[in-house]
Amino acid sequence: MTNPENPSSGSPAPAKAPARDPWELPDVSGLVVGVLGGTGDQGRGLAYRLAKAGQKVVIGSRSAERAQAAADELGHGVEGADNAECARRSDIVIVAVPWEGHARTLEALRADLAGKLVVDCVNPLGFDKQGAYALAVEEGSAAQQAAALLPDSRVTAAFHHLSAVLLQDPDVAEIDTDVLVLGESRADTDVVQALASRIPGMRGVFGGRLRNAHQVEALVANLISVNRRYKAHAGLRVTDV
Amino acid sequence: MTNPENPSSGSPAPAKAPARDPWELPDVSGLVVGVLGGTGDQGRGLAYRLAKAGQKVVIGSRSAERAQAAADELGHGVEGADNAECARRSDIVIVAVPWEGHARTLEALRADLAGKLVVDCVNPLGFDKQGAYALAVEEGSAAQQAAALLPDSRVTAAFHHLSAVLLQDPDVAEIDTDVLVLGESRADTDVVQALASRIPGMRGVFGGRLRNAHQVEALVANLISVNRRYKAHAGLRVTDV
């Protein structure tokens, strides 16, 4: 018999443990959120939305000055620091760096990210005349690469399908999308779901283990096709949940 | 300058060609739809919904007798035939066979499927104790494998994220989900979008080229995780379109 809540658990669950309510999520309002790559469009957008929702946010960049300048623009108490200090000061660290710098950035921050809950939202994409396409990643996905490079961190994946345009637009009150959250530990994915759900309109939905992160990252290529065809800023909703 | 409607086009579009309304889709009500693997859960569910919506449907199976028996159960004018006859009699052929038999089945039907609009909805997945995961496919995806095996057919991909349970439940009046439709030719994807949109609640949305089919197929592994966690029959909606 497998335990449907945790089929990989080494020890069997009590035979009649009641199923936990998947929407009962922890209070994360007191946690500090760092955003590596926080001066990029996606990072800035996320930092803005989380800070506006009342979260303490520190954005990181290679240059502390640029991080501070971006933080000042964002307001809502956002602070800026270099990436290492951003990591050290944060409980949850969102990785929003360009794919090109992903491995190098994380490798350099291994010690600073030890013990942290890391949320990878990087989409390894290539672009040519026909549009966007998914890049092959040796580890399987950006999130799995992060997990391989950060053995002392708790790595999750989320926030892939957000429109940086909508996130940064102060006239947009609600972000009409679900956020698929992937990870190996329910405690960790619950925290990230709770964080996503703090942003009005947004909802964090558990989306599986990290080995299934590739397709979630790669689906951004399809959303780019959707955006081009429909002149939209597409997001995703999971129905029946 | 790239033409945003067709960036791969060899010849440039007229400078001020008005953008076509992406929701202006052809009338497909007179087309015959075949469903290869029409005796399986997914195939039967799709055949049932399309026939109920007024489409002429022929389900195919290796055995004409089993196809006919399933067709009789489904009602709504559904007919049964062996796979080759199903293909020959249809204008649009939905491929809903198990991944294990995908290549072999299509190879054997190459001549019968020549000139047809093929809609691949197969999800190459593996299963173990931790749940479902995406299988690597040499051609990139099931849809690309179909395109490679069927050089004389027009291959598209769609209908990946449907719950066979909901499709087959006569008490479910509407299927609350969008259908991402992928393909190389707008004429073909428009037809498949129109077909999906005939089913109440369902909407066909263009989702990119076949090279981006892998992640759409593989995302079913994530939806299986969603279904397990939330005890749901999850589908997807694209927001802002």
Automatic annotation (TrEMBL), chains A, B:
Lineage: superkingdom: Bacteria
Residue spans of biased composition, Low complexity class: 7-17
Gene Ontology process terms (BP): copper ion import; NADPH regeneration
UniProt name for this protein: Reduced coenzyme F420:NADP oxidoreductase
Pfam families per the UniProt record, alphabetical: F420_oxidored
GO cellular component term of the entry, any: plasma membrane
Domain Pyrroline-5-carboxylate reductase catalytic N-terminal residues, every copy: 33-124
Keyword Lyase: no
Lineage: Bacteria, Bacillati, Actinomycetota, Actinomycetes, Kitasatosporales
Annotated segments matching region Disordered: 1-23
Keyword line: Oxidoreductase
One GO MF term attached to the UniProt entry: NADP binding
Organism: Actinacidiphila rubida
